[in-house]
């Protein structure tokens, strides 16, 4: 391709850098009606419910029935948010934070160590069978093992604690994390490992000073994927906790909804409030977040 | 520095450093292995063992032979739950796949307005199933929902109170939640198709639709298999969404296997039969995953290396 210097033409080039670039040649200039219609329909389907949740959460319960549901409130109120916060949502938020950090950090750490060992050693039968075990683990639906997990948690006297949520979350995060991380560690040139070894570095040192810095994007991706999965998890808290003090946000949402089902604006305020932290992250690091969501599948 | 081509899986052994470092490295995998064995492998065998016992979830666990299996297999609830699960899998696949394919292809273009749309499209990915289910439950409420508020009669239905409608709502909400994820997969897939293929087709005078069916679709074969596998295996274990949205109701219209398992185990305190259902769930999941892999003719775990 010829080098383009003018600003406008480079923008045009970027615009057409996609697969429809040949359009410029004039063959395919017709507007793409099918795609256009479809994209608008899907936009409406996605945006209307979200818009409705947000505006309704600022309406008072009495105005909610009187006003057109798709018109923003004439007198916005924070009362619903106040009710949600008074219903102990701050505590649930911190529970979710504790469980997410408490599970993701160890999960990614042990997965990284395992992935490193699996990639670096090919002789060990132990590591090879460990790898196959993790690969098989990808196919096991975690929901199906929940009853024995419940039994184990009871036997460990951890029922109704945050640790009860953290331990199984770590285990369930391992197979995919190891798979993705080992694929990236495998891409590190062998010479680098070799020169580290000749310099007298230990495997432990090589892991932290060579492999980790070179695979940082993959580590971030895996961290985000696991964090979202655990943050949004519902089944483990439902089964492994009982008292309100140990609730995480999704479970708290569910019981709040059961309690205030008639008060639609308050229920929707709780939904908005629990989504805000993730939406903030989405605005800050959209690319990383989306890459994280398809960790291991998107390549 | 010259970098040799990075060896794929199979040839990794050739490049390994001499001196048999396997033993010195093994301990690095031990912590992950311990967690995984304790909370995934043991439970997997445990659920099989528990299906031959009687347990109410609190008291003693007693061996009871095939009682739980007999109870589960003779219950008309099981074929019904299997059928509902199958319907959810089939219909949600049939709705999601074409929609995600088209949206993914659309979003693969680099035009700025498409990037803006993508930001909005992907929002459902971020919300928890509980939040999505609660939102739609409120939105579809016949007395307090959006339809009632707008006063449009056709929208004022007892959406979650009538079996057929409730089933349709489940499929719709599932699609709402997961189409963005699969679009993202397809977007990545389409962007990897060599542009020269389209240029050549264009020179030959192929139109947009022809190019979609002759280039995009065949080139996306492995993405379609990956996406379908995730959809099918994933919809087998939809629990959060259906549990919060309909709790399996009305009656048992949307009672999929996972909800059936929860209800028997944790509401009726029949852990034995619930474990039997969990075993069925595992077997069906494995069978479907193997079937899809066979159809694809390629190991899913290899696709990342070769596609990279």
UniProtKB/TrEMBL annotation, chain A:
Membrane topology field: Multi-pass membrane protein
S-adenosyl-L-methionine keyword on record: no
GO-annotated cellular components: plasma membrane
Transmembrane stretches, start-end: 33-54, 92-119, 131-153, 165-185, 218-240, 260-284
Keyword vocabulary terms for this entry: Cell membrane, Membrane, Transmembrane, Transmembrane helix, Transport
GO BP annotation list: transmembrane transport
Keyword Membrane among record annotations: yes
Stored PANTHER family: ABC TRANSPORTER PERMEASE PROTEIN MG189-RELATED, ABC TRANSPORTER PERMEASE PROTEIN MG189-RELATED-RELATED
The protein's name: ABC transporter permease subunit
């Amino acid at each position: 391709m010829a080098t383009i210097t003018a600003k406008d033409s480079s923008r045009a080039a970027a615009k057409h850098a996609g697969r429809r670039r040949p359009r410029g040649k004039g063959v395919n200039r017709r507007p793409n009606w099918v795609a256009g219609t479809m994209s608008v329909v899907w936009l409406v389907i996605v945006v209307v419910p979200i818009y409705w949740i947000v505006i309704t959460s600022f309406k008072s319960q009495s105005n909610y029935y009187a006003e057109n549901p798709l018109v923003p409130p004439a007198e916005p109120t924070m009362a619903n948010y106040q009710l949600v916060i008074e219903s102990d949502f701050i505590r649930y938020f911190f529970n979710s934070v504790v469980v997410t950090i408490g599970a993701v950090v160890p999960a990614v750490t042990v997965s990284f160590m395992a992935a490193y060992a699996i990639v670096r050693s090919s002789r060990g039968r132990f590591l090879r069978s460990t790898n196959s075990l993790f690969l098989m683990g990808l196919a096991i639906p975690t929901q199906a093992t929940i009853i024995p997990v419940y039994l184990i948690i009871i036997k460990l006297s951890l029922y109704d604690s945050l640790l009860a949520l953290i331990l199984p979350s770590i285990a369930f995060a391992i197979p995919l994390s190891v798979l993705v991380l080992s694929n990236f560690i495998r891409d590190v040139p062998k010479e680098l490992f070799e020169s580290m070894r000749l310099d007298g570095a230990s495997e432990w040192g090589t892991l932290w000073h060579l492999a980790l810095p070179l695979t940082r994007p993959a580590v971030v991706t895996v961290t985000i994927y696991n964090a979202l999965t655990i943050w949004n998890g519902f089944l483990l808290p439902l089964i492994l906790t009982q008292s309100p003090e140990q609730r995480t946000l999704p479970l708290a949402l569910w019981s709040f909804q059961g309690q205030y089902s008639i008060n639609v604006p308050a229920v929707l305020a709780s939904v908005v409030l629990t989504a805000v932290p993730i939406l903030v992250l989405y605005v800050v690091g959209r690319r990383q977040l989306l890459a994280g969501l398809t960790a291991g599948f998107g390549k | 520095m010259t970098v040799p081509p990075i060896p794929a899986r199979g040839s990794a052994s050739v490049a390994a450093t001499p001196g048999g470092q396997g033993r010195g490295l093994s301990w690095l995998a031990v912590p992950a292995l311990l967690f995984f064995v304790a909370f995934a492998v043991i439970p997997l065998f445990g659920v099989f063992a528990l299906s031959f016992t009687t347990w109410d979830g609190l008291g003693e666990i007693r061996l009871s032979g095939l009682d739980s299996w007999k109870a589960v297999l003779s219950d008309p609830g099981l074929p019904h739950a299997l059928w509902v699960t199958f319907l959810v899998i089939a219909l949600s696949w049939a709705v999601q796949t074409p929609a995600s394919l088209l949206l993914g292809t659309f979003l693969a273009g680099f035009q700025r307005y498409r990037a803006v749309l993508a930001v909005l499209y992907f929002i459902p990915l971020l919300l928890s199933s509980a939040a999505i289910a609660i939102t739609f439950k409120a939105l579809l409420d016949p007395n307090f929902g959006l339809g009632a508020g707008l006063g449009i009669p056709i929208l004022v239905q007892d959406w979650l109170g009538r079996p057929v409608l409730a089933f349709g709502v489940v499929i719709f909400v599932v699609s709402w939640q997961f189409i963005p994820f699969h679009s993202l997969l397809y977007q990545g897939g389409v962007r990897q198709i060599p542009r020269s293929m389209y240029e050549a087709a264009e020179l030959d005078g192929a139109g947009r639709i022809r190019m979609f069916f002759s280039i995009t679709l065949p080139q996306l074969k492995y993405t379609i298999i990956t996406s379908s596998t995730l959809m099918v295996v994933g919809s087998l274990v939809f629990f959060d969404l259906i549990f919060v949205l309909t709790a399996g109701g009305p009656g048992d219209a949307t009672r999929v296997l996972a909800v059936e398992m929860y209800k028997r185990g944790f509401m009726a305190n029949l852990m034995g039969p619930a474990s039997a259902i969990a075993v069925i769930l595992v077997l069906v999941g494995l069978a479907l995953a193997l079937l899809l892999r066979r159809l694809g003719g390629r190991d899913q775990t290899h696709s990342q290396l070769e596609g990279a």
